[in-house]
Amino acid sequence: MSTNILIDSVVSWEMPRLQLYTKQDWEENVDEIAKEWKITKAILTNDFKAELGESIVLRRKDQKVTLLGLGDTKSFKKIEDAVRSHVFKSKDKMGKAYIIDLHCLTHKLHKIIDPIISGILLGHYMLKGIAPQVDIHLDIPKKNKGKIILAIEDAKKVAEAKMWTMYLVDTPSNIIDPQGFADEIEAKSNDFGFDATTFRSREGLKTLGLHAVLAVNAGSSNLPSFSILEYTPKKPIANIAFVGKGVTFDTGGVSIKGSQNMHWMKCDMGGAAAVAGAIAAIASLKLPIAVTGFIPATDNMVDGSSVKPGDIIQSHSGKTIEIIDTDAEGRLCLADGVSFASKMKNFEHIVDIATLTGSSVMTLGYEAGALFSNNDETAELITKASDVSDEKVWQLPLWDEYAKGIQSDIADVKNYPGYPAAGAITAAKFIQAFVPEKTKWAHLDIAGVAFGANGYGKDRNATGYGVHLLMEFAKQVIKNNQ
Ligand code: BES
Ligand code: ZN
Ligand code: ZN
């Protein structure tokens, strides 16, 4: 890590200082600050009210202090974003070493320390090049110090996992191809504390029965990969699985996409990256739950050997699939992924996550992921997790009527109804056809939220959506089993 967070370190008076205030803390401290800086209270409160994201710079001699407001919100995302945005914009001016002063956060520091730490680290995340080394000295209050230090250590771990996910999504597909994805997983497994098994050849995937993944890969000169990530604590309270769509680039295949903004399709492994990041976070926090991640990775390319509309392909489950549209490739990868997972072990829940449909973007925009589940308990645990992580989800139905759209005349199922109605739902119905009825399963369509125009780059870039959500889901499963 090139951003160091230091506690109880020696600091110099001239180091720039960033002081954080909630509205309540500001109101209680403003008299003292006004006196200290010899500014009248009226002028100071006129310039700064500690609204969320508001900032002011105070200076005297060699000293520079920036005040940053956190408003009165408890929202993880809003606090994380306010801190990240400020750090992102001002980091060049803060230099190689600065102090973040949390002394004035007297009221609920333990509740807001996680998004603050995440915001600081994400603020230094860079899309290009290697981030310069920065030492951030945290000045924390004495009250509950031990507890706060532990919270800081944990928040750092989660933020590091999130930034790994962001890096996987932001890095172009010629740099992280399906083999590169497996390399990344292997390279990071030790640091984060999970086991990785990777399959990297067409023969290997064939032996595993991943025929639908191989069909997506048919037109590619890049070999596919299949990675299994396993984290097993000493006494697991439960056992869950995550499956992530790892399409490193989606041209659409023979049903080729338009060229406008096709470069965004490097984000089509956002589900797989969220699975990797979530398992990294769960493992580095040593949560008492066993988690297995399944990541089928391939690109979806156009070639003489590509799968074509009208073709019938095999799948891991034994069900045959008629291809109507080769651009509906993610569901093919997930079909094999969920089938493989359900046959490997009796998981208490299987959750898949994928940048799956433009339809989910049309429905929920860039604000929420679409949630589908065959089980109320699983859906409720994800919804609760989403309330904590502040990554919105909205449940859509899986009514039987929608299955009509995937009935085929000549195969067990088809991969697209052929009409553009309820596309996110019919995609979910397709995946459901590969999940055993008794398995508690949920599907998250994150096409609108994994990659976005968020102010941290000129073009769209990774959001890290899903890492915190899946980690929090694991915590909810633990709670539910206690
Ligand atoms: N990768 C896309 C979905 C997507 C859309 C991801 C926008 C990120 C942002 C997926 O494979 C796809 O092409 N879906 C098609 C399916 C259709 C052809 C049945 C879609 O949603 O248009
Ligand atoms: Zn596609
Ligand atoms: Zn896709």
TrEMBL record:
Keywords: Aminopeptidase, Hydrolase, Manganese, Protease. The keyword Hydrolase applies. The keyword Acetylation does not apply. GO terms for biological process: proteolysis. InterPro entries: Leucine_aapep/pepB, Macro_dom-like, Peptidase_M17_C. GO terms for molecular function: manganese ion binding; metalloaminopeptidase activity. Pfam families: Peptidase_M17 (PF00883). One of its GO terms (cellular component) is cytoplasm. Residues 166-470 form the Cytosol aminopeptidase domain. Belongs to the peptidase M17 family. This is Leucyl aminopeptidase family protein.
